Amino acid sequence: METAPKPGRDVPPKKDKLQTKKKKPRRYWEEETVPTAAGASPGPPPNKKNRELRPQGAKSTHILKKSRISKKPQVQKKPREWKNSESQRSLSGAQDPFPGPAPVPVEVVQKFCRIDKSRKLPQSKAKARSRLEVAEAEEEETSIKAARSELLLAEEPGFLEGEDGEDTAKICQADIVEAVDIASAAKHFDLNLRQFGPYRLNYSRTGRHLAFGGRRGHVAALDWVTKKLMCEINVMEAVRDIRFLHSEALLAVAQNRWLHIYDNQGIELHCIRRCDRVTRLEFLPFHFLLATASETGFLTYLDVSVGKIVAALNARAGRLDVMSQNPYNAVIHLGHSNGTVSLWSPAMKEPLAKILCHRGGVRAVAVDSTGTHMATSGLDHQLKVFDLRGTFQPLSTRTLPHGAGHLAFSQRGLLVAGMGDVVNIWAGQGKASPPSLEQPYLTHRLSGPVHGLQFCPFEDVLGVGHSGGITSMLVPGAAEPNFDGLESNPYRSRKQRQEWEVKALLEKVPAELICLDPRALAEVDVISLEQRKKEQIERLGYDPEAKAPFQPKPKQKGRSSTASLVKRKRKVMDEEHRDKVRQSLEQQQELQQQKEAKTKPTGAWPSALDRFVR
Amino acid sequence: MSANQVVESLLALSQQEELVDLPKDHSLSESEDEGDSDGERKHQKLLEAIHSLDGKNRQKLTERSEAGMKVSEFNVSSEGSGEKLVLADLLEPVKTSSFLATVKKQLNRVKSKKVVELPLNKEKIEQIHREAAFSKTSQILSKWDPVILKNRQAEQLAFPLGKEQPAIAPIEHVLSGWKARTPLEQEIFTLLHKNKQPVTDPLLTPVEKASLQAMNLEEAKMHRAELQRARALLSYYEAKAQREKKIKNKKYHKVVKKRKAKRALKDFEQLQKVNPTAALEELEKIENARIIERMSLKHQSSGKWAKSKAIMAKYDLEARQAMQEQLAKNKELTEKLQVAFESEEEEGGTKEEEEVFVPEVVNEVQKNVDGLNPWMLRSYTSDTKEVATQEDPEQLPEPAAHEVSGSEREERPVAGEEIPLRGFEERRSLRKRSELNQDAEPAGSQKTKYSSSQEVLSELRALTQKLKKNRQSRKQKASSEGTVPQVQREEPAPEEEESLLLERPERVQTSLEEVEKLGKEDCFQNKGLPRHVLEGQQSEKTPNNWPDAPKEKKKEQMIDLQNLLTTQSPSMRSLAVPTTIEELEDEEERDQRQMIKEAFAGDYVIRDFLKEKKEAAEASKPKDVDLILPGWGEWGGVGLKPSARKRCRFLIKAPEDPPRKDKNLPNVIINEKRNIHAAAHQVRVLPYPFTHHRQFERTIQTPIGFTWNTQRAFQKLTTPKVITKPGHIIKPIKAEDVGYRSSSRSDISVIQRNPKRVTTRHKKQLKKNSAD
Asked: Is the confidence metric ipTM above 0.85 for this complex?
């Protein structure tokens, strides 16, 4: 949920003429704006694509209208009747045409709900029940509030749509550039840097800055939107990988021997000799960890906030040169030559999971921003998309003619693969859906084989590093259109950045919390809970929470004889036993019913009436 | 002896003397100078003294207590008249006077009053006080309970306690309290009121409203007449029904029933012609009625009537017949109908039937292709008759052919068991089909209304049975014809099986050798693939309502690793094929390496992975504890093993672990180790009101940080529980604060200040009060 001030939207100049070939993209404001904008915009005639435009930093204040939150938002309430309706009727006679709180769409509310109400809870005491009710009501209220403020996410993602039957993959960059406004067109550029070999590149988290390093030692960082160069140096050593640290002011470069850290002036700040022969770098922004994979087979986590090595894990799988991070849970994915992908956390010496993905070695791994899909490509020329939610099974597979050497996911789930000197992009249906590998969304040929790929955050731009330099491609619909101004603001000033840095440091997540399911932290540690209870029972000699055994009350007039006491005890015992049996029977029945419901496809049994169907 | 006697006599003597002396002394002190009546009195005294020696009279006081007849001035004797002195006696004058009567009365009154009881002892009184005070105080305090409960559950408490701000009312409602004050306003409003114009809501005048509400007179009359007629008809019908019900003529009822059934039949036939869908519904109703009747078990032989008939049956032919009918009906009712569905399907056409049979076969074939362990899977898939029928043809005519492969041999025993079963199944299906035909055909001509209920139904049934008998012969013919195509249908099966047989060994081989021939494998797959596709199509055709389908899915849950990795994925239609000419040196170098790797790709990958997974599973399993001491109680040394008994006694088995998370995921190894570092951050103690960890988890599932919430929600979620105003004194809560009028404090103090004397009677009263 984004609470940040959202940038205002500036309406792009509307093109009045439509090319016959392409369908005119429709925007939601079109109905109102078309007639007025038609005369106003004398832009370039053909409008083939319509992409998200970078807003000009106009900020609208965060206004949340005070609203009465109804418990059931989707139900339209009856006009609210005031108790003394006669006297309370307004003087003018005017009545609220929309009484009660505004309805909120259920699906949107559902998106923000965290409590899984389908799971049944064991019987609870009245007190606990009231607490649970409060928690549930709170959750509902907050999710409704969040759903209401969805309205403030004014920006819409861009898209590219071919006219009926036309393949979007055939649209080349030149067409797109021609169609978009000047500001967006300026985002497509090529840097011809043939001298210093294939380039790796990295965008900063805000998407404003770009750093790239060539194999032959060329390292540069620039504000790529304004094309302002921050620094340019030659480290006189092979550069394997380059990565921004938490802000654009720090730059980690994996050089031939050691790992070096430079600032945005190009001054070398650190040389970290404990990380040697590093091949790949990943930065975990919320943990302030720089993960390095080395030729020696070690995965090292460096805490950049204190400069300590948190963990050095031996993957025992030879040279590591395929690495990516899962942005959802900060788990590092390593690809190995035996076709497996292993998942690592600094808290564990062994991999959290190992997945056999390919028959040959793994060449590239990428994980999407929601952490549900992982794309891998291997030496067997296959590209697979795996489901990471527990099953780790491939969702779709595709054999590529040349195999993909590099993979990357965009913020909205577009998948790019670099194959030789060609870049292919696949798109899914929605944000959380896996990319369908049926047809590429876009393709582009570069002047050299691809060496590095990354989608720019919050911009519909794909950066490709290749042997001929750097190419910045326009990919409509790649990035998240709305950014969180407090979290990663592309337009932030220096002061704001410093402020953010302090806050981010204060909220740093400890490295040991990285695990496969981050929500597991919100669960009670059952094992130690049970252990403690066992210890307590041992210490006390009895279970303090256990139900006291039934003790019959003494009765008078000879009814308290031993026999009758025993009888009474037995009665109670039997009753309890019967209850137990009853419960277990009920459970069994429920299970059976569920089974039956599963096995019996509803309404599909051959019915007795089928005999009349002719 | 004599000495003893002497002593005794002496003692007795001396005692006698004492006795004699004692009264002497006594008399001396009492009456020294009374000489005249000495002898007599002395004697009496002596007697008295002797009497007084025993028991009660001994301590008789010789004090004078009342007036006696004999009064001596020296001695006040105890002897009186022997009667009690009454107060009135004292007052009684010699002569009775009326003057004293009043006094007497007063005295009587005084006397009639009961005696004042003794006060309770101090402890008791105090206890009673305490109890009373407690009950009263708790009663007074109990009125605070709701307040306390409210405060405990309140999301936020603000101190010092003050009056709550009234909720801000919308401006319009505030304005509505406004009244016309200026003369002009008043004039306008009076004008409006006079003309009955709406003051606030300008939509409708009261006149308009009234006119709207009024109802048309004619309409109302018509409505009433309708209602009357309906009521009258209803009553007529009721009366008629009652009259008919009372008729005791059995024959009459029989005729009525028959008539009803006939009419229902006719109606149904007509309906079927006119409106088939409605007819279907009718039929369903009939079906329902049948089910209900069957459930009611009315036609069991356990009823009262049935029992009586059973007794009569011996002698009465009619009763016997009735009983037989009853039994037949029962049989008919309790017949399982579900089977009918099955055979119905068969009747639907040979095509359909084949489709029905296909899924099992498909399943089987797939399993074989999997090559994991075909014969093991086989044994449990072959429990259906379809498999049996399919296997049978190849098994019976040419049993020798199958001994070629070992796998087949393993299969056979299972199949052998199926043979007799199969025969049985076939017979049963035959029978069912004929039955079904009987069922189905009458259905075509069937009839009846649900409203005519069960009697009509049973009547119908009788009719249909007659029809059945007629058609029985025809049916049998039809069914025999039906079997012929079935046999024909079965013939293609062996061929398929054979092709399977040819292929299976190779499949197994590939899985064992782990894809050494990658190239070959592809063509195998190509071979396999079309079949897959075909089968897929077939199974798609079959209605997935077939109950077996989901079961199959379940069985197939274990995904085959081989399949997972070798599935032929569609290759990409490439728009831009990467150019390889302009590759740089290192690229070429890497490509070379890649090519080599590609050539050997997947050689041992799968096997290694499975091995690794096995090892991981082994490592995570808890180990058995071995406490065997070699040589203890038996010979020990090199080459000697401890006995089995000993081993079994001293080996502590580790408890069974829960199944691994990756049990059904062949391509995954999930680490089951606990992350201790993360666990240190987890909650490990359940807070108070919760009894189960899941309850507590639910309360902490929603994040409260502003990263995940809107600003307002964040503020609400993080509001402090208690708010205090700095610099203000927080006074204890008072009754006025929560809307109570009287102060409870004074009540308590009253009780405590004047504790009255409490007697037992009071105590009882108090108890009663407190109980109230």
From this structure: no
